[in-house]
Amino acid sequence: AQMRESRVRKTKTVCTYCGVGCSFDIWTKDRKILKVEPQMEAPANQISTCVKGKFGWDFVNSSERLVKPLIRKGDAFYPVEWGEALDYVAERLSDIRGEYGPDAIGYISSSKCTNEENYLMQKFARSVMGTNNIDNCSRYCQSPATYALRQTMGYGGDSGSIEDIAAADLVFIIGANPAESHPVLSTRIRQAHKRDDQKLIVADLRKNDMAERADQWLQPKPGTDLVWIAAVTKVLIDRGWYDSTFVAERVRHFEEYRASLQRYTLDYAEEVTGISKEQLIRVAEMIRDANRMCLLWAMGVTQHMGGSDTSTAICNLSLITGQVGRLGTGVYPLRGHNNVQGAGDFGCAPDVLPGYASVFDEKVRAEYEQAWNVKLPDRRGLDNHQMVERIHEGRLKAMYLKGEEIALVDSNANHVGKALEKLDFFVVQDVFFSKTAQYADVVLPACPSLEKEGTFTNTERRVQRLYKVLEPLGESKPDWQILMGLANRLGADWNYQHPGEILAEAVSLTELMAGITYSRLEGYDSLQWPVSDDGVDTPLLYADRFAFDDGKARLVPVDWTPPLQLPEEYDLHLNNGRMLEHFHEGNLTYRVKGLREKVPDTYVEVSGSLAEERGIRTGSRVRLVSPYGAVNVSVVVTDDVKGKELYMPMNTSKAEEAVNFLTSSHHDQHTHTPAYKEIAVRMEVLDVQ
Ligand code: SF4
Asked: Which residue numbers delimit the 4Fe-4S Mo/W bis-MGD-type domain (predicted)?
């Protein structure tokens, strides 16, 4: 009986699904997951989780897990031993680099992986392979917010903590749907909003769960957010409802900024956005009356051709109202994936090293060159978008990708698929044989989060440890071990025994995270960067100064970029995003029986009026066609969308139904984040049912 008892273990982990970063204990018996038990001391969630965190783990025992390396021969894949697989990858990468140079290979890291693994991935690309061609999936989501924050306030992260949002008396959510994308965070907002003194404004095309309970719901025309934000900001300035003391003491470029708003009158905003002048004034009054306002935004803002500029407009609004640097105020670009913040923090981007140090800064490069004992590239690398284009041009010959379903989640999937077909050599490292893996030459079996140690960084810059709950399944390995095996075959001499040693090396090279150590992150302990040498962290940014040499924030004038216009035959705007029960493309959650039974497939939401006009109902099958592709999908008729607006979740159990077969390659001008939200389609009825 005692032996049986001792097989039951309780291990602390951090959720692998979203940027809220819930942590909890997982009870297991051998490989069986008995229960998920959140604890009061969990900093982001306390005793809450959502349905994915609570029930979303069975995929780790799926019979579809990759358990052995695979090598392609002709059209088929054959299992091989690790030694053979890594020798082959090393040889091919080495040959391609020899023939075409280091910049002919691209590397894509993963927000599913730990900070330590992301650090090693960029170290591998830069120090072993000699290129800055390294990126991660923040290119698909919040790169525009990071860009905006870094040019206005200094740091590319949420300015406060999730729990601080409760202290706000006005919460303003723009282009985000936390009830489905950041569920535990939305629970906290909902609880706080029940207080009489906390108001909620939501701006979203769709009447999502938060919009439904908002005091004001703004429903702009697609792609027009910058216009109404600028108009509200202009009202605040023109009527003297801004924080002139804060602006005078802590912000630069006010006059240029004020002048740049001339065009954004209420009349213009009403015409462009469809939001009435009265409602815009009402919003301005609510901002005027708020002592503490938090601004939250996500992909409804960023995934546009003007995504960076709209993010900048939000930062500008926060600055002129002095709503930053105090408890209950601040800017929160909500991070989608569990560790998308960390992937960027640890340098998986073409222009920055860990801690956002520029690759163009000679002094920084010299430090890394000394630490890594190599000469580092000083050219800007390629981002995800550029890599795809360079493959089409025949200039990028090989790609090494870990934990990212690029064939489904990158925009314009047909275009991306054609690029992947053209690669001379393609390595995919993943937990499952993904859609992307079908294009690979070598597939390397990686472990999911439950089978490894490391740290994740959530949306509030909070670094937390995860401990190994289960042993790796079959011959799968943690990504850091795979990378080390490969690097050493290519001339490196890495000898990490434990991820803690990787983190120690990484933080020793960054000012931003200098004091983070595993011993300071024991159990449920966590640290929010910046963390000083002596371990003091910073839950609240900008209390005294902004992260520029002079300590002052910058107002940055921006202009509106009208959304993509397609020919009239594409008469329906197709919005897209997440759903509660599934995560991202769905490779993990559709392999969880309970979640798959709850929502077995993707669907398209259609308004009652459109359904009537086209003679369709819930369950009808339709074909959506854009200039870039087509998908067949089932209809759900709902009030959440209006008129000619459609909504389709990005998660899908059937690869051929993925929404990105419809989206385009248009992108944000500053960051190349795809304009996923700017697409129109036409609809053909296949089967009314
Ligand atoms: Fe928490 Fe997000 Fe995981 Fe849900 S998916 S448990 S909200 S971290």
From this structure: 8-64
CB atoms within 10 A of CB 497: 7
| Alpha carbon 39 to its chain's center | 26
pTM for the model = 0.94
- Output DSSP code: residue 27: E
Identify which of 23, 35, 36, 45 to mutate to test ligand 1's pocket (most ligand atoms within 8 A of the CB).
Answer: 45
pLDDT in tens, 656-669: 889 999 999 999 99
- Smallest CA separation from ligand 1 atom 6, residue: 53
Segment 568-583, tens digit of pLDDT = 999 999 988 877 777 7
What residue ranges define each of the domains in the chain, with the CATH number in brackets? 2-61 (2.20.25.90), 70-136+338-458+468-498 (3.40.50.740), 143-333 (3.40.228.10), 572-687 (2.40.40.20)
- Of the chain, the end-to-end C-alpha distance in Å amounts to 56
Residue 20 alpha carbon, nearest atom of ligand 1: 8
Pocket lining for ligand 1, CB < 6 angstroms: 15, 17-18, 20-22, 45, 49-50, 52-53, 183-184
State whether ipTM is beyond 0.95.
yes
Q: How many CB atoms lie within 10 A of CB 415?
A: 19
Q: How far is the CA of 460 from the centre of ligand 1 (A)?
A: 14
Q: Count of H helices and E strands in the chain? A: 24, 28
Backbone phi and psi for residue 552, each to the nearest 5 degrees, phi listed first: -105, 145
Atom index in ligand 1 nearest the CA of residue 50 equals 4
